[in-house]
């Protein structure tokens, strides 16, 4: 894990998958790169936007839950 990079809310928001930016999301303190995931094309996935902390969404609303995270590259840690 790339623990060296720490993202806060403002830093994470820059990685929204738009205008050539990578798409990152934070779940439970870990920042994942979803850029290469087709379902996150354009930084959007089922009404959710990249560049945000989405723990409550993946735990409470996602049909797949956290099991999809194991296949994603970790790019850092999230601290708000």
UniProtKB/TrEMBL annotation:
Pfam families with a match to the protein in the record: Cyt-b5
Cytochrome b5 heme-binding domain ranges (all copies): 7-79
TM helices/strands, residue ranges: none
Protein name according to UniProt: Cytochrome B5
Species this chain originates from: Levilactobacillus suantsaiihabitans
